[in-house]
Each structure stands twice: as structure tokens, then as C-alpha cells.
Design a protein that fits this description.
alpha/beta, Rossmann fold, four-stranded antiparallel beta sheet, globular
């Protein structure tokens, strides 16, 4: 794969083993700046391992990872490099309840991230940035004082998205980020993510087993099976005309059309006790 400057994320020949077990076997894909790619597969297919390598949480046995034009295959050597990498690539996890510090208010959490990555801002500017982030994800000023346990699942996930955005990353890894939400709230959060991508030109790597979610949020898709990439193409091609038997089985396992109904991303999400 030729590595070019217009790519936000590039994975080339990636391989990861755990002893004699090959978790990821010669996987390559790329996402253009502002694009969105779905990494599709069942549990154990290797997609989460790939995400961990991209984020620097695991090391690869072979291959290369580049983000924002810079190599990040080897471990970061300095604190400054670790901060830069974190600023470039952020993640939103599946379960916001466990990924948010239960002792920290949403406001203090966001301000800490802003302070870490934007040291030139003074206190008043940091507070304004926190307010802007809350507004960006559809939360209210009152949520600055809220602890995660005082918020609904949808509100917690919006706060987790705001935390990822606080670093102003170019790439966001979405690791099954709506899987823990009920269907109506899932649709609202997907709408929010789609709107943020368009507004901010952020790049998404979506990790999901849910073909409906992949269809709504991504331009291209790659399908993983037992550590290998078995199919890739535009999302429409992969989902509507799958060529590999594994992808065909995935497609056949989905009852009815693989689509997600777009609903308004803003109604009642600020109402405590609402469906958010």
C-alpha cells in the first residue's frame, strides 16, 4: 500500500500474535481525511486488537500504522510524543459508564482534557471551551456539575464523545460506541456522530458487528474473519453485494433491511428522565 498525505489513518501489513495464536494476519486498509470506515466482524475477528494497536495499547508483531502522516508503529518514546498521539487519535468506548471516572464531574473531566492538550488557554477560555463542547454534543450547561451516575446512558455517551472531541483529534475510533444504547437513543447518537463528522471533518474508524450502524455512519467497510481481512469496498458494495461467503453469512443473519431510521438528534435529550 502506498502511503499518501491525504490519508488520515493507514494500516499496512499488520500482524499480531499471542503466543502461537495469530490474532491479526497481514491486514491493510486506509481512511482518507474526513472519511469513515467500518471495521466489521464478529467477536474474536481481530477488529478490537487492531484498534488497540492503532491507539498504542498493543504492539504489532509486523506491519505499520500511520496516523496524520506520522508513523506510530513503535511505542512512543517521550511524554510529548504520547500526548501528540493522543491528540491525533481519540477513542469512544462502548460503555460510557465504565469509561468515565465516576468521581469526576463532566465539567471537570472536560476541562482536564482541554488543559492537557491546549495549554495556551487561560481559565476563562478553558471554561468556554467546555461549554462549547457540551453544546456541540447536545448537552446543557447544567451537566458540568453532573457525575456520570446522575446522567442517562445516552447523555453519558454524549459526554464521552465530548471528551474525545476536547483534544481536537483528526481521527476518532468508535468501538461499538452505540451498542449499549436502546434503539431510539442509538439512532440519535448516530445522527450526532454523522453531523459532527460533517461539521468538523473528523475521520472515523467504526468498529462494529452491527451492519445497520455501519451502513448509516461509514463510506467504506472492511470485513474481518479470524484475524484476516476477507472483503473490502464501499459500504454499499460490501453490504448490498457481498462477495465473500463470510460477509454473505453476516448479511443473511440480519433480519430485514440493514438500515437505521434517522430521527432528530436534538429533541428531549436535555430532559432528565427522557429517553436519552
Amino acid at each position: 500500500m502506498k502511503l499518501t498525505d491525504d490519508l488520515a489513518l493507514e494500516v499496512s501489513g499488520l500482524r499480531k500474535t499471542y503466543g502461537s495464536v495469530v490474532a491479526v494476519d497481514d491486514v491493510s486498509f486506509a481512511i482518507r481525511r474526513g472519511g469513515s470506515l467500518g471495521l466489521v466482524g464478529e467477536s474474536g475477528s481481530g477488529k478490537t486488537t487492531i484498534a488497540k494497536i492503532i491507539l498504542g495499547l498493543e504492539s504489532a508483531a509486523a506491519g505499520q500504522v500511520r496516523a496524520c502522516g506520522r508513523d506510530r508503529t513503535a511505542a512512543a518514546r517521550t511524554l510529548g510524543e504520547r500526548r501528540r498521539r493522543a491528540r491525533e487519535v481519540q477513542i469512544v468506548f462502548q460503555d460510557p459508564h465504565s469509561s468515565l471516572d465516576p468521581r469526576q464531574t463532566i465539567g471537570s473531566m472536560l476541562e482536564a482534557v482541554v488543559r492537557l492538550h491546549h495549554r495556551d488557554l487561560i481559565a476563562g477560555e478553558r471554561r468556554q471551551r467546555v461549554m462549547d463542547l457540551l453544546d456541540m454534543v447536545g448537552l446543557h450547561e447544567r451537566h458540568t456539575a453532573a457525575l456520570p451516575r446522575e446522567m442517562s446512558g445516552g447523555q453519558r455517551q454524549r459526554a464521552a464523545i465530548a471528551r474525545a472531541l476536547a483534544a481536537e483529534p483528526e481521527v476518532i475510533v468508535l468501538d461499538e460506541s452505540v451498542a449499549a444504547l436502546d434503539v431510539s437513543i442509538q439512532a440519535q447518537v448516530l445522527n450526532l456522530l454523522a453531523d459532527l463528522r460533517e461539521r468538523l471533518s473528523v475521520t472515523y474508524l467504526l468498529i462494529s458487528h452491527d451492519l445497520a450502524v455501519v451502513r448509516q455512519l461509514t463510506d467504506t467497510a472492511v470485513v474481518m474473519c479470524q484475524g484476516q481481512l476477507v472483503e473490502s469496498g464501499t459500504t454499499a458494495q460490501v453490504l448490498d453485494d457481498p462477495q465473500h461467503i463470510y460477509t454473505q453469512r453476516l448479511r443473511a443473519s440480519v433480519p430485514g433491511p440493514t438500515w437505521v431510521r434517522r430521527v432528530s438528534a436534538t429533541p428531549s435529550i436535555l430532559d432528565e428522565g427522557g429517553a436519552s
